[in-house]
Amino acid sequence: GALTLALAPHVAGIVAVEIDRDLAAALPARVPPNVRVVLGDFLRTDLDEVLRHVTLPVRVIGNLPYNVASPILFRLLHSAEHGRRFRDATLMLQKEVADRLCATAGRSGYGGLAIQVSLLADVDRLLTLPPGAFRPAPKVTSAVVRLRFREPSADVGDPEAFEQMVRVLFLQRRKTLLNALRPIADARGHVSAQVIEIAGLDPSRRPETLTVAEMARLARAVL
Predict the structure, then answer these.
(1) What sign for the dihedral angle of Cα 156, 159, 164, 167?
(2) How far is Cα 1 from Cα 13, in angstroms, rounded to an integer?
């Protein structure tokens, strides 16, 4: 509610998606006419319906619940339509989630979230906020990041198959690429070593060292 009230005077309009029934019922009486409150779970909300009468692209602003931050981030990335629906998103997250989101190949926290973000958006870390910045103080440090959505940075072929491949590889991030890729290659009737050679990669590397461009080459070779 406080975030919506602070933003309202500075924008043409706000669509506030609120999962809490009581808060959603109380908000309309507290906010100016340019705010439309939608009761629902963002992860299940029909975005086409919610944005039916809104000029696209829109900007997303939110303080994400820490327990569902990653699913919401994935939905934003997959629903942004490369910047045509969502221009950008400014989000408050738990610092550990922000670290994973901003991680680069070979660094701590690098995984599926960092790869999808790097593929579909440019990310900037704007602020780090200690627990004492809030009342009551949470038990975690927070961070504010901005995602600017764009066209994919690499051709991954089938996006859903790519995401599944990345998920499987990072379940075995410490194995060699040769061994980590074998279940995926076998399931598609390929030989892991040959796929890696086609992709121009070293089979002794670990999945956690692959950049998005290298992951994309591997996906095109195996999927």
Answers:
(1) positive
(2) 15
For residues 188 and 176, what is the distance between their CA atoms, to the nearest angstrom? Answer: 19
SS3 content of the chain, % helix, strand, coil (to 5): 45, 20, 35
Token pair belonging to 80: 């942004």
Nearest to 101 by CA among 114, 92, 88, 120: 114
How far is the CA of 191 from the CAs of 184, 194, 196, 205, in angstroms?
Answer: 10, 5, 9, 17
Q: Could you identify the residue written with the tokens 């790097």?
A: 118
Supply 79's token pair: 């629903």
φ, ψ dihedrals at 142, nearest 5°: -110, 165
Would you say 193 and 178 are in contact if contact means Cβ atoms under 8 Å apart?
yes
Let me know: does 155 contact 219? Beta carbons within 8 Å: no
pTM exceeding 0.90 = yes
Which of 53, 61, 49, 64 has the alpha carbon at shortest distance from 87? 61
3-state secondary structure of 14: strand
Residue 12 DSSP symbol: S
Q: What is the pLDDT of residues 90-119, one digit of tens each?
A: 999 999 999 999 999 999 999 999 999 999
Amino acid at 20: D
Residues 60-75 have pLDDT tens digits of 999 998 889 999 999 9
| 93: helix, strand or coil | strand
Q: Measured between alpha carbons, how far apart are the two ends of the chain, in Å?
A: 45
Q: What does the DSSP assignment read for 33-47?
A: TTEEEEES-TTT--H
d(CA 27, CA 37): 7
